């Protein structure tokens, strides 16, 4: 990976994960407003009932990527390694049921970001040994967005990872809102990943700014 680990930590501060099925309106407008509000990383995750496939999926991905590129926000693709390679995306995020991170890394090249979803200490250790750049830990709180989410685990695993001295960049995901974001950071996360707190907001820019404010307020107090 060409960017430094500290750059990556900074990118993970407010990570928007989204596809067309997570938006009530036009996903391009949602992304525009989220970028204006201050998101630091974007993941294209086109999943669930009514999700776009094939050319339509790729067309939306390219339009979203163009907006990210115009504003210097790195663009990550969920799962679809082929699409990420074709688009020259900044990276890929994979789950436990996908191809292992070391194989994804080989296909993608050293300079791209590889992120892995993990739900236990063992999964995090495996992701690290496979060369993941960051891990996403979830679901921290109950979420209606991911139908097959694992059991809610709170911030305990994040805390344990840090207590064990693991320094890998990490984000919490699942049910994170402006009200609970600071607890995730306090536990030791570098940032938060959210879907609905931004994508389903009726005031996307303001909701994004509020999240940034909550994250900054905590860091300022340190
Ligand atoms: N991954 P929201 S939870 C995409 O636990 C995703 O790995 C999860 O959506 C995990 O911010 C989740 O709307 C959905 O709760 C997060």
Structural account:
The chain has 222 residues and is of the alpha/beta class. The protein has helices spanning 5-11, 27-37, 54-70, 81-87, 101-108, 121-129, 156-163, 181-187, 196-199, 204-221; strands at 14-18, 41-44, 75-78, 91-94, 113-118, 134-137, 170-173, 191-194. Helix 2 runs parallel beside helix 10. It is globular. It binds ligand 3NM. The site of ligand 3NM has 18 residues, from helix 9.
- How does the major sheet shape up? 8 strands, parallel, barrel
Helical stretch tally:
10
Low-confidence parts:
none
The succession of helices and strands, N to C, reads HEHEHEHEHEHEHEHEHH
- β-strand number: 8
Average predicted confidence as pLDDT: 96
Q: What's the helical proportion of residues?
A: 40-55%
Structural class: alpha/beta
Bound ligands: ligand 3NM
Record the SSE blueprint.
Layout: H1 5-11, E1 14-18, H2 27-37, E2 41-44, H3 54-70, E3 75-78, H4 81-87, E4 91-94, H5 101-108, E5 113-118, H6 121-129, E6 134-137, H7 156-163, E7 170-173, H8 181-187, E8 191-194, H9 196-199, H10 204-221
Parallel strand pairs: 1-2, 1-8, 2-3, 3-4, 4-5, 5-6, 6-7, 7-8
Bound molecules: ligand 3NM.
What can be said about this structure in brief?
The chain is α/β, with parallel strands linked by helices.
């Amino acid at each position: 990976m060409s960017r430094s680990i500290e750059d990556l930590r900074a990118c993970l501060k407010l990570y928007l994960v989204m596809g067309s099925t997570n938006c009530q309106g036009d996903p391009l407008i949602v992304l525009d407003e989220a970028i204006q509000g201050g998101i630091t990383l974007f993941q294209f995750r086109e999943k669930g009932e009514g999700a776009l496939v094939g050319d339509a999926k790729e067309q939306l991905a390219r339009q979203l990527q163009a907006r990210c590129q115009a504003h210097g926000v790195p663009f990550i693709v969920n799962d679809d390694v082929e699409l990420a390679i074709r688009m020259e995306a900044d990276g890929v995020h994979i789950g436990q049921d996908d191809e292992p991170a070391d194989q994804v890394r080989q296909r993608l090249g050293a300079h791209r970001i590889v992120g892995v979803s993990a739900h236990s200490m063992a999964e995090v250790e495996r992701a690290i040994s496979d060369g993941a750049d960051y891990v996403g830990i979830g679901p921290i709180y109950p979420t209606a967005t991911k139908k097959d989410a694992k059991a809610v685990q709170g911030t305990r695993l994040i805390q344990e990872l840090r207590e064990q001295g693991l320094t890998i960049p990490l984000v919490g995901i699942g049910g994170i809102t402006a009200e609970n974001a600071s607890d995730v950071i306090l536990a030791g996360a570098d940032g938060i990943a959210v879907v609905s707190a931004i994508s389903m907001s009726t005031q996307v820019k303001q909701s994004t700014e509020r999240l940034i404010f909550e994250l900054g307020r905590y860091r300022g107090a340190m």
